[in-house]
Amino acid sequence: VRCQLSPAHRPLQASAVLRRVSDEQKKEPLTSSSQQQFDSHPTDHQPEQEPQGPRPSYTGQGGQESEDYESEEQLQHRILTAALEFVPEHGWTAEAIAEGAKTLGLSVATAGMFHSDGSELVLHFVSQCNTKLSELLEQEQKLVQLGEAEKKPTDQFLRDAVQVRLKMLIPYIEKWPQALSILLLPHNIPSSLNLLTSMIDDIWHYAGDQSTDFNWYTRRAVLTGIYNTTELVMMQDSSPDFEDTWRFLENRVADAMNMGNAANQVQSTGEAVVQGLMGAAVTVSN
Amino acid sequence: ALRALCGSVRGLAAAPETHFGFQTVTEAERREKIYKVFESVAEKYDVMNDSMTLGIHRVWKDILVHKMNPSPGTLLLDVAGGTGDIAFRFINYVRSVRERQLQQKLKHHQNLSWQEISESYQEDKSKSLGDSQVVVCDINKEMLKVGKQKAQHLGYSEGLSWVLGNAEELPFDDDMFDVYTIAFGIRNVTRIDLALQEAYRVLKPGGRFLCLEFSHVSNPLLSRLYDLYSFQVIPVLGEVIAGDWKSYQYLVESIRRFPPQEELKAMIEDAGFFKVDYQNLNWGIVAIHSGFKL
What we know:
The complex is a heterodimer. Chain A is mainly alpha-helical. Among the domains of chain A are: 72-116, no CATH class; 118-268. Chain A has helices spanning 13-26, 72-84, 87-90, 94-103, 119-145, 154-167, 176-183, 189-207, 215-235, 243-285. Chain B is α/β, with parallel strands linked by helices. Chain B has a seven-stranded mixed beta sheet with strand order 5-4-3-6-7-9-8, with helices on both faces. Chain B is globular. Chain B starts with a helix and ends with a strand. The interface between A and B is medium-sized, with 27 and 25 residues.
């Protein structure tokens, strides 16, 4: 009889030890998930290191086991976050991941857990940026709801959102072209496309878009185009503080707004023309 | 007479049974027999590998080191490394990665003074491996001897050391190595679980376990051809080239007795490794198992 936990539920002992040591030194708050809110006290008393037989898992699938153990996924996220620091020097590569692992006290061989082309690092970074953007937009929305801030007009809202998001790239701007090429690799396209579309969707959601017709698609397509082109412009922008990029962005957003108006105008003009023709036909028939 | 019976019963109970190829022997007998096998084949080991696998074993070993993707500064323990194939490939790989790193660094610094340039050349000479090291550990003196000779012949000296040791009881401290490899060796270990536990022990946190070994072919047609080749051709090659039919009969039988991919994966997980996975090469003739100490 093996009273062993299945791999998905076994705690990561080595990483738990490392985290405990670093926690002791820094006394940082635990990164517990929302389910563990009752365990908000820091690790002053050390729970058992050894697993005491099969533990009931608090979460469903491979999530955090208890406050001191973490799943493989969480460890991977921590390694990737630590690796971002080394990207300006090593690029989006397995070497950056290896350096990141070293700062966490793990062997450089840990980089073997990831693809050797640095894909996961880039995707992790993009995902992190998108999450940050969502949080900022949500905070802004709360302020507006509380009446502490004015609701921005749509074009300014879009401009600000895209600008904030692109500014997150500034620390890594030198190696960003490499990241873009990695995102375009065939095996990464599903994930990168997914991240892009959900980010654009988020921005429109917070901009107050509630369309249920074809506009939904048009708006997202337009904003995606604006975002991608601005990103490319930013790559080769050498003006101080990326002024040229922001001006480009302003112009594109203005274009998009005008295009919307123009479309409406065309439609109404078209309707007017048709009505005129109908009138003429009736007159002629009479 | 009763005492004699008790004695023999005790003797039998004290010696756990295991397999040597298709024979059943005690663990102690198995260790001895395997030692003798490798003692006798050591000189012709590399030649036999080439002829049995038609040179493909080189590709398998290359794939193993590529999968490892070691960065300069990695400490590798190659267990059952005998004649040094994995160790030499590791050194080559790390050396080329290091060269590329240095070239990139030079590219970035365009305006160097003569002083800086000469300093960088000195650094090159002293750190061509970037502090990487490989320890080759083998239980068999003859295999190590052949390995050392090969190293001398091929010009490998830096970052390489040879240690006599048993995979079931490694003569190293805990948490020492970045990567542990065992290529075509774990099959010959009598207590695989002990070897896996030792691997776990000597690896640093985050360290990687890599095992390259003959495995199970599931495709029925291929399996029949493989069996035919294994049992009809290989022992004959063994007799003709190395003058040793029995050792190569053992080799082929031991492959059949070795646990298949999923079972080995479970054993590795039992030893405490995470993210355990395997990659079949040549439809399962060979498999690379990988796990991390997390």
